C-alpha cells in the first residue's frame, strides 16, 4: 500500500515538474533575442584574468544583470590581497527551504591569440553561425525580438562556453522560475569567480573571508563540456592542475648557424632531449614517482566508469588521429595524472625563420593531478627529473658565473596550482541533483567519477568542508581554451532548464 | 747575385706598396663623413630578398654609387626567370693587365623581426654607436665633414656587416686608388648579388647567361667575419647549405589539455622525440649515413688548421657556455656537415600559453654541408630518418584518410640549397691575394680551409670553372643574421685597404 501511494506521489511530482519545466522552456523560447543580446554584450567585454580594467567591467556587468534578474544582496567579494579579480555574489532566500545550494561559474577566460582565430572572427566580437564553421556553418544575424532561432546555431567568442555560458545559464535558470512565479525548493547562492583560468590564486582567501556568507549544503559547479556522446553528465570530481615553464639556454647572443653550427650548443635540441626524456613511447610519464601518490578508484567508481558509453572511436575520427597517446580508453586515462606540452618556442619557424643558433628554448608544461597527488610535490618530481638529466636548475636568468660553471642550465618558473577533488558517488544531495538533471531530458545522465579538466574544487572542500559536484552544459566540440571557442545554442537552452530544475531540487 | 737583386726588387716593391696603401688610408680618413653618409643612405633601403620594390631601389642606388665612383659599364644582370633580384655589375679595364679579378658581395639581407632589436634600434634606421651596445656603447652623431671618428665605433643596421659593408668596401677600395691616380694591376669586375640570403636561387641562371662577360682568373668574395682572434683571414672554401621544415600533427583542433590530456597525442612531445633522435649526447648526428660522403681534409688543410690560433676558450666565455656541442675545436667541427635547429614552434609559451594540446609542432632545420655532400642527398638522409622513426612523410597537409591510416605523420618542406666548395690552398693566384692582404697589416693572414658559413661558391666553380676565395672584413661579433647586426668602423676601413691592395695584386 505504501508503495502504491509512493508511486502516485512520484507520478504527480514528476508530472508537476514536467509542467514547470515546460514553462521554463517557454520562457527561453519567448525571450531568445533578449537573452542572446545580453549574452553577446557580456562576451564583448574582454575577460583575461590579468586585465584588471576589463575584469572589473565584467564584474560590474554581472552585478547589473543579476539585479535586473531579481537576485538579491548582489555584491562583490574581494580577496585580502588587493586588486585581484572579485567574485560576484548574490542570493535568493526561499521561505521554508531548509537546504542551500551555491551555484558556481567563472567569468574570466583563457589568454587569446587573436591571429589564430578563423578569418573574420575575433575573440571579443561575438558572432552567430548557423553551425560549427568546420561543418559549414555561415554567419547569421542576431535574432530580432520574438523570432526563434535554430538551436544548432553557435556563438563564437572567448568565454562563449568557458564559462560565461555558465554565468548566463545559472542566472537565467533562476529568472525563468521567477517570472513564472515558481518558487525554488532550496535557498540559492550565486558565486561567479574571476580568475579560474589563472589558477584561482585568491579563491582560498575569499572562501575563508566569507565563510559564513557561503554556508551551504552543496556547491553545483557549471563548467566544462557535456559528454562527447551528447548525453548530459553529472561529474563527481575534477583533476587538479599546475604548470611549469622550462627555459633552456644556448649562447648569449643568437649565432650564425654556419659559423658556429656543430660547436655552439643548440637550446632547441637540448630542450627536445629534455622533453622527450619525460615520456616513454607508450605515452606514460617516466619521471621518477610520477604515479606513486595516485589513490586507486573505488569499486563504485569503477562500476560507474563501465557504464559510460565509449566515444573513443568517434573522437579519434573527429579529431583526426589513429592512436591515442596512452593505449587505454579515454575515461581511464583521465583518472591518471598527466604531463602535457602546452607550447614550445625557440627562435622562429616559417617565413621568420633565420639561420641562427637560438639563445633559448622554452616549453610550457601542464600537469593534471588526481586524488592523492599534491601539486607542489608533483612540480618537484618534474624539477628533480630535470636535474637528473644533468641540468643545473635556477629560478632566474643565469648569471655569467653560472653559465661558466654548468654545462646545461634550465630556468624553471612554477605557477600556482591546486589539487584534485572527488565527491562520493553515494552523496545523497548529489544524487538528487543528478535526478533533477534527469528530469530535464528524461534519460539518466552519465555519472562521471571525474572530469579530465580542472577546477579548484579541493579548495571548497578544504575551506568550507563541502562537497561540490559539476554539471557541465557546453558542447564537447567547443574549442574551449583555444581559438574559435563556441557554444551551441541547444546546449545553452538545455543548461538554463537544468539549473532551473536543480533549483527545484527533487526529493 | 740573383738572390740579392730579387731582395732589392722585393724591398722596393714592398716599400712602393706601403706608400700606395698609405694614400688609400689617407683617402678614407679625409673622406670619412662622405663615405659613412653614403653607407647610411644605402642601409636605409630595406633589403629583404623577397621585397621586390626595395630590392630594386637598392640595385638602383648601387648603380648610381658605382658610376659616381668612376666604375665603367655599370649595368643590371637579370635572370631568365622574371622579377628576381638583379645582380649589379660594373668593370674597370686596366691597360696592359693580363689577369682579371671579379669582386663579389651581396646587397640583400636576412629577414628581420624588428621587435627583437635593442630598444631605440630599427633594422633600417642605421645608427652610430661609440662601441658595441653590450660593451656600453652609446649613440653618436654621424661625423661632420672633415672630422675624424673613433674606429671603435659601430654602425647598427640590417646589412651593416652582411653584406652591404662588402659592397661599400669594394667600391671604395677602387675609388681610393682612382683618386690617387694609382693604376690597378689587374682588370676588375664588380658583381653584387641580391638574393644570397634567400639561397641564390637564380645565380646559376645569371652566371650561365653572362658567362663571357664574367670571364676572370679568380673571384674574390667579400662576406662573413674576420677570425675571432681579430686576425685577417683568407678563406679557401665554404660549407654548403640547405633547409627542411618539419611539421608533426596532433588533433585537428586544439584540445583542452584536461579533458584529453594522456589520451590525445601531443605533437610537441612527438616532435621533441623526433628531433632528439637526430643527435647523440656527444653532439654527433645519428642519422644513417650523415657523415658518409665527407671527403677528408688534405694534409695541407690539416696543417693550415693547426696554424689557426685557438679562440675556443675566448668564445665560450664571450658566448656564455661551458661545453661545446661536439667536443672538438671549433675549426675542426666546421669541417663536418651540421644539423642545426633554427627554430621550433608549437602553440604558445609565456603569457600567451594556454592549456591546450596543440594541433601541430614545427621545426626549422638547417643543414650545412662539406665537400662531398650533395644537398638533395643530405635532405634525403634526414627524410629517411624521419620515416625510420615511424612517421608517414608527406609534402602536404594530411588528409582525413591519411590521419586515419597513419599513427604518426610528418609534413616535410624542402628548401633549395647548394653544395660546399673549396679552392686548393696551393692555388697560385689565391696565394697572391693572401699576400695582398698581408701587405695591409704586416702580418700573415690566417689561411682558413673553409668558412663555417655558406655562400653559393660551388655554382661559380660549376658554371664558370673558376676558383673563388673569400676575404671577410666584418668583426666576428657582428650579430649577422640576427637582431642588432653591426659593423665596427675599423673593420670597414681595413676592408677598403684590403680590396685596394688586392686590386694592386702583388706578384
Largest sheet of chain A: 7 strands, mixed
> Which structural class should the secondary elements of chain A be placed in?
alpha/beta
Low-confidence stretches of chain A: none
Overall tally of structural domains of chain A: 2
Mean of residue pLDDT values of chain A: 94
CATH class of the largest domain in chain A: Alpha Beta
- In CATH terms, the superfamily of the largest domain in chain A is Zn peptidases
Per CATH, what is the topology of the largest domain in chain A? Aminopeptidase
Shape of chain A: globular
Report the sheet-strand fraction of chain A: 15-25%
Largest chain-chain contact?
A-B, 100 and 99 residues
- Oligomerization: homodimer
Number of strands of chain A: 21
Based on the coordinates given, report the CATH architecture of the largest domain in chain A. Answer: 3-Layer(aba) Sandwich
Protein architecture, described:
- The structure is a homodimer of 507-residue chains.
- By secondary structure, chain A is α/β, with parallel strands linked by helices.
- Chain A folds into two domains: 2-236 and 423-503, 3-Layer(aba) Sandwich (Aminopeptidase); 239-297 and 335-418, Alpha-Beta Plaits (2-Layer Sandwich).
- In chain A, 33% of the residues lie in helices and 21% in strands.
- The first copy, chain A, is built from 14 helices and 21 strands.
- Chain A has helices at residues 2-30, 32-43, 52-68, 164-179, 203-209, 267-276, 299-307, 312-319, 330-333, 375-388, 400-405, 428-441, 457-464, 489-503; strands at residues 72-77, 87-92, 100-106, 127-129, 139-140, 154-156, 187-193, 218-221, 233-235, 237-249, 255-256, 338-347, 356-357, 360-369, 392-394, 409-418, 421-422, 446-448, 451-454, 468-470, 486-488.
- In chain A, strands 10, 12, 14, 15, 16, 17 and 19 form a seven-stranded mixed beta sheet that branches.
- Chains A and B meet through strand 10, strand 11, helix 6, helix 8 and strand 12 of A and strand 10, strand 11, helix 6, helix 8 and strand 12 of B.
- Strand 12 (338-347) of chain A pairs antiparallel with strand 12 (338-347) of chain B, so a sheet runs across the interface.
